[in-house]
Amino acid sequence: MLILKTVDELFKLSRVTKQYKIIADALEINLPGMFEEYETFDQLLGGNLKLCEAPEDLFEIEVIRKDNGATVDIVSAKISGYDCIADVAEYILGDASTGLGLIQLVTNNAGGDVYVVPELFWKRINFKKYVKESGG
User: Fold this and answer.
1) Sorting pLDDT into bands at 50, 70 and 90, what band is 27?
2) What percent of the chain is modeled with pLDDT above 70?
3) Taking the alpha carbons of 10, 12, 15, 19 in that order, is the dihedral positive or negative?
4) How confident is the model at residue 60 (pLDDT cuts 50, 70, 90)?
5) Is pLDDT above 90 for 19?
6) End-to-end CA distance of the chain
7) Which of 83, 95, 124 has its CA nearest to residue 22?
8) How far apart are CA 34 and CA 103, in angstroms?
9) Angstrom distance (rounded) from CA 65 to CA 97
10) With b meaning 16 or more CB within 10 Å and e meaning fewer, what string describes 39-69?
11) Full domain range(s) for residue 123
12) Over the stretch 70-108, which tens digit does the pLDDT of each residue have?
């Protein structure tokens, strides 16, 4: 998992990789200094920006079980058949064709960690279900 803590880290990556440019565009981080008031993603999103790069990264994404309100990782939720929800689940730029989705469980007043999930992993975690249920 690639964990980005500062806005500048994403800006630098967005200049060399299309995937990161799409993420930067979605967060409107496309000009140097545009987010001078937000140096870190913790300030902007209430947590870090985490980019899933391997199947094992998916185990870090937490969702809430509808039956008891407990948190569970998203992979175990699918394997066990738990009916779960996420606070935010949507396609980046509102478009599935970008091949990127994001999911967030709000864990504090400012938000929480935001996970970027490539299309390659959507079926493993039933991502489309989360998007539908969160209204994304």
Assistant:
1) confident
2) 93
3) negative
4) very high
5) no
6) 24
7) 95
8) 24
9) 29
10) ebbbebbbbbbbbbeeeebbeebbbbeeeee
11) 2-134
12) 999 999 999 889 999 999 999 998 999 999 999 999 988
Sequential DSSP letters for 17-67: -HHHHHHHHHTT--STTTTTT--BHHHHHSS-EEE--SGGGGGG-EEEETT
Calculated CA dihedral for residues 118, 121, 125, 126, nearest 10 degrees: 80
Q: Specify the number of domains making up the chain.
A: 1
Nearest to 101 by CA among 59, 129, 70, 60: 129
- Edge to edge, the sheet with strand 84-85 lists 71-73, 62-65, 84-85
- Containing 14, the helix (H) or strand (E) segment is helix 7-14
